[in-house]
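Proteins fold reproducibly. Next comes an illustrative record:
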Amino acid sequence: MTVSNAYSRPDQLSDGLRTRILDTAAELGYPGPNPAARGLASGRAGTVGFFSESLTWAFQDEGAARFVGALASELEPSGLALTLLTSAAEGDFIPARDVALDGAIVYLCQDDALALDWLIQRRLPLVFVDHSARDGFDNINVDDRGGARAAAEHLVHLGHRNVGIIASGGRGPTRLTTDALDTHSSTSLARLEGWHEVLADAGIVPTVCEANLFDADGGAVAAGLLLDESPQITGILCFSDVIAAGAMREGQRRGLYAPDDISVVGFDGSQLAARLTPTLTTIRQDVDAKGRAAAKALVGRIDESSQTDQRILLPVELVVGASTGEPPTR
C-alpha cells in the first residue's frame, strides 16, 4: 500500500519516504503500476480517442491540425491522454473496437464509416465535430452553410456569373459532377447547399468538381478539370484554404492570375490564407474555440456532469483578401 501511495497518492507520504521508494524502484527496474491493471481497478482508461477517416489530412491541413492542438491543450488539465484511432475496421486488432478509451472525438467523417460503428456499439461518450448530429451525443459545428452563402454572395456582388465549385469528394475519384449534393459528409453538404442557394437565386449554374485529395495538389487537379470543362469560369469557390491554394497555383500555370484573371475563395481562415500571394479571400472559423468546446463537452460526458445533448454552432466570418475582384472581360 505504501508503494502504491508513492505513485498514486503522494500526499499520503513524506517527501523523504516517497523519494526512497521511487529510487529503489528505479534500481529494480520497476516502472510503476501496470496501466491495464490500474484501468481495471479504477474503471477508467485515462485516454480518449480521436477518430477521423483521414489522419494524414488532419495533420497536413493547417485548420485541422490547429483544431487537434486546441483539443489536446484543453484536455491537458483533465489528465486525459489523446489517442489517435486509425480507420481500420477489419483484422485481429481494430483500434476503434480494441483500444481502451473513456470516450472519443469523432471528427469530419462520413456516417457509414465502419470504425465509427464500432465506437457507437461500445456505448462510449462521443462528441461529433463537423459531423451530422446524432441523438444521445454532443455535436460541435461551425456555420458551414452560412459561411458558404457569404462566400458565394461575395463573388456574385463582384459581378461573377461563371462560377466553379471545388467540393470535398470523400472516398471517390476527383471528378466533375452534377449530383454532388447526394454524396458528401454533413460539412460538405452544408457548404454545397450554401453555395448553390446563392448562385441559384442569381440564376447561375456552377460547374462542380469533387476533389478526393484535401491538399494543394488535389485543389490543382480539380481546378484543372473545372477550367478544361468551362474555360469561361472567372470565380472558384473552394472547400478549404489549402484546396484554394492549389486552385490558384493551377490558374497561374495556365496564365490566369488572381484577382485580375480569376477570383478564388477558400474556407477556414487558416494562416495559409494570409501567407499566399495574393492573400486569400476566405471564410474564417475559430478552430481554437471548436477544439476547446469539443474537449469540454467530452470531459463533461465522461465525468457525467453533462447529461443533455449539446448542439453548438460556432459563427464564421468573411475575410476579404486580395484573391478576389471584379471578373475580367474574356
Observations:
- The chain has a mean pLDDT of 87.
- The chain is about 40% helix and 15% strand.
- Residues 130 and 143 are 10 Å apart (CA to CA).
